[in-house]
From TrEMBL:
Pfam families: Acetyltransf_1 (PF00583). Residues 184-198 have a biased composition (Pro residues). This is Acetyltransferase. Keywords: Acyltransferase, Transferase. Residues 387-397 have a biased composition (Low complexity).
Length: 407
């Protein structure tokens, strides 16, 4: 692999390390980086580790000082595993991981790998966000000795990447993707013409989203009539086509509906409803194709969340196709956390949860293993609060799993 020094800007560089140099740095600095986690302390192992495949270790430097690392090793004939990344706390929050990541992926590509895999704590959004933005896709969750992990995979083969969209139900199979999945080739469906629908009157004040866009509360019946006319133009996803209509009426719960308007016409919508006594559910958000890529989803989120919080909810839940990074990233940026995967009529869906209060957010950090049970969350779980972590070595004696917060 490439052995050049990478200039990351601001006086920071990345340089290749030998495996022994990486292990020495890990032993010396891991307590300062990973010491706040909550892992299970195994007894010393009785079996030697399996032989390590090709490895790739990079050190992060501020001048000549080693401040962090990224270590990967070969998992099989196609896959490299990003096992461990970390940056000293005083250098976190500067975008170092985000700037290093493209160079690492280029090195993996040059070395002949097809897949890049990694695992991260489910609440570690500071690492999950740059990984998802780089093209990684959510592929699973794993409960292990360190907590709850999210499994991510990046395909350096665009056809395999598209196949993951097919698996999740986000897109229909076409061309080479269909062939490799053993399906008959089908031409891409022609995009449905988008009807022009004037913005109806609302039942409250508009929220200015900037750029000529507004968010307008409307009755559910108004939204649903528009949704049925625009659904085919708004989605490329593949859902189960039930052969018969439902035999039961939907439960009566409070509903919250907004339309996105631009130049007097409907550009999209957001529909939420009550999930349970504490939780609202963001059911359905869509922007018509001509209005995507303008940051609208990011701008409407605070308005919708604010309205749901004012409605008395403690949490907000949402489901998204597991490969729909364009929605997952802004949700994670707004404090949502990955809490599961589910398979439903629409495909393989990621379950996200946002908490308005600090107690449940701290609870999620405990469940993921990012933080030990401290203070109020320990008492709420019926536990004696753990001592606040110092700078000693973490309970898990290994250096993984790629779990610092270096972004």
């Amino acid at each position: 692999m490439d052995r050049t020094v990478i200039d990351l800007g601001g006086g920071f560089t990345a340089r290749r390390l030998s495996l022994d140099q990486y292990r020495e740095a890990c032993a010396r600095l891991e307590g300062r980086i990973f010491g706040g986690g909550w892992g299970y302390a195994f007894d010393p192992p009785h079996k030697p580790p399996p032989p390590l495949g090709e490895s790739c270790s990079w050190g992060l430097f501020a001048g000549d000082e080693l401040i962090g690392w990224s270590h990967a090793h070969q998992r099989d004939e196609r896959t490299v595993y990003m096992a461990d990344s970390g940056v000293l706390p005083e250098h976190q929050g500067r975008g170092l991981y985000t700037r290093l990541l493209p160079h690492l992926l280029a090195a993996f590509r040059a070395a002949g790998y097809t897949l890049v895999q990694s695992h991260h704590r489910a609440t570690n959004n500071r690492v999950l966000i740059p990984k998802l933005r780089a093209g990684f896709c959510l592929q699973g969750l794993n409960l292990y000795e360190g907590g709850l992990n999210v499994s991510l995979t990046l395909s350096l083969d665009p056809v395999y990447h598209d196949a993951m969209h097919v698996r999740s139900g986000f897109r229909a199979p076409h061309g080479d993707t269909a062939r490799r999945l053993g399906l008959p080739p089908t031409p891409p469906a022609e995009r449905t013409p988008v009807p022009s629908i004037p913005m109806p009157g609302g039942q409250g004040e508009d929220t200015d989203l900037g750029g000529g866009y507004v968010l307008r509360p409307v009755p559910y019946e108004v939204y649903y009539g528009i949704y049925t006319r625009l659904e085919a133009a708004a989605y490329d996803s593949v859902s189960l086509d039930w052969p018969t209509p439902p035999r039961l009426e939907p439960p009566e719960v409070p509903r919250y509906v907004w339309l996105v308007g631009h130049a007097g016409e409907v550009a999209g919508w957001q529909y939420s409803r009550q999930w349970d006594a504490r939780t609202a559910y963001m059911v359905n958000t869509a922007l018509l194709p001509a209005h995507r890529g303008r940051g609208l989803y990011t701008r409407l989120l605070p308005a919708v969340l604010g309205a749901l919080q004012a409605g008395g909810y403690d949490r907000v839940r949402s489901h998204h196709h597991a490969t729909n990074t364009a929605v997952l990233v802004p949700k994670l940026r707004h404090g949502f956390c990955i809490q599961g995967l589910t398979v439903d009529d629409h495909g393989v869906m990621a379950v996200l949860m946002h908490s308005f209060g600090p107690l449940y957010r701290a609870y999620m950090e405990v469940r993921s293993g990012m933080q030990p049970p401290l203070g109020a969350v320990a008492r709420a779980l019926g536990l004696t609060p753990a001592a606040r972590p110092g700078t000693g070595a973490p309970a898990d004696p290994s250096c993984g799993p790629d779990g610092a917060s270096p972004a």
